[in-house]
Design goal:
This is DinB family protein. The chain has 6 helices and 2 strands. By secondary structure, it is mostly helical. The chain has one domain: dinb family like domain (Four Helix Bundle (Hemerythrin (Met), subunit A)). A two-stranded antiparallel ribbon has the order 1-2. A hairpin with a 4-residue loop joins strand 1 and strand 2. The chain is globular, with a radius of gyration of 17 Å.
Length: 170
């Protein structure tokens, strides 16, 4: 097993959260934690290791991609000009994921900052049915989309980690 069930920080043997918003927040927190767990204990070379050519996907690339995704979701919510991409256009979040310690540290710091900023922006909209942003997207849809994005990439992270050191998801 990936983590001892008795020590897995994602295990919640207590009651599930009350309410839809708390449930969505709990699922997102667990997927975010899963991604961090999949990256734990790896050096920059392992984090930057690509899956299978010609793919540019790596664990570090996934982290950087999710930085950009968090920023994009915030762009959907907040008025004004959208915040620019941090890593450049196109596939730069994956292409630029190279085996450098400073780059790894920056990527995880960027992710924490962007997650907190998006969480703060969404905290202003406790009504999940509220329509926000230029496109009038439902707050509920933003939460579900975020969960879907992390869940999808946690599946990728399972496969990437297995390729690196043989550890499999549970």
């Amino acid at each position: 097993m990936w983590a001892d069930p008795d020590e897995d920080p994602r295990n919640n043997d207590g009651a599930s959260p009350d309410g839809e918003l708390a449930t969505l927040q709990d699922f997102l927190a667990n997927y975010r934690l899963t991604l961090r767990m999949k990256c734990e204990g790896l050096d920059p070379g392992q984090l930057a290791r690509r899956s299978v050519p010609p793919s540019t996907m790596s664990l570090l690339g996934l982290v950087r991609h999710l930085v950009e995704v968090e920023r994009d979701w915030r762009n959907w919510i907040l008025p004004g000009d959208p915040a620019p991409k941090l890593y450049g256009a196109g596939d730069a979040d994956f292409e630029g994921a190279v085996a450098e310690q400073a780059l790894v540290e920056d990527a995880f710091a960027d992710l924490a900052r962007e997650q907190a900023a998006t969480d703060a922006a969404l905290a202003g909209f406790p009504d999940l049915g509220a329509r926000v942003g230029r496109d009038g997207i439902a707050v509920r849809e933003l939460w579900v989309h975020r969960i879907e994005e992390y869940a999808r990439h946690c599946g990728h992270a399972d496969l990437l980690r297995e390729r690196i050191d043989g550890r499999v998801g549970q």
